[in-house]
Specification:
This protein is 25% helix and 30% strand. It contains 3 helices and 10 strands. A hairpin with a 2-residue loop joins strand 8 (123-124) and strand 9 (127-132). The protein is globular.
Length: 145
């Protein structure tokens, strides 16, 4: 993804009054399985809402949308395995999500760009998730979606 376009997209998302089902803001949060569940839920929510991508953005305050920057490092290992590989081998079908470092308001942000699900819902570790409001839930509980 072109980084200039990504910066503009992030600025657009920050301008929303609240998060939407297809994008989420975090500051420095890190939990590998949780990130995998977000890949699934954002991918599926983006497809449901006609968006090309879902986004998880680190460095933006969740409630205020203030750009605060982040120390989140996506190049960490999970049990001697790179985080990206840990996530990729558990996302089904593979959807080619990508991490990007960008600067907004001279602060470091990390953007996880997740393509919308295509043909079948995106899953992580054998489960499929969807976002409903600010909640990430198992899609099995909401089959109509």
């Amino acid at each position: 993804m072109d980084l200039t376009k990504l910066v503009k997209k992030v600025e657009e998302l920050i301008a929303y009054p609240t998060e939407a089902n297809w994008f989420e803001f975090k500051t420095n949060w890190y939990e590998p399985n949780g990130i995998g569940e977000y890949i699934s839920s954002l991918s599926n929510a983006a497809a449901l809402e006609g968006q090309e991508y879902g986004y998880l953005i680190w460095g933006v305050h969740n409630a205020t949308h203030e750009v605060v920057g982040t120390t989140f490092d996506y190049r960490v290992d999970v049990k001697n395995e790179p985080l990206e590989h840990f996530l990729a081998r558990q996302v089904m079908p593979d959807n080619n999500f990508t991490f990007h470092e960008i600067a907004v308001e001279n602060k470091r942000l990390v953007a996880l760009v997740v393509p919308a699900a295509f043909k079948i819902p995106t899953g992580f570790a054998g489960n499929r998730f969807i976002r409903i409001g600010s909640s990430k839930v198992n899609l099995n509980k909401y089959p109509e979606r």
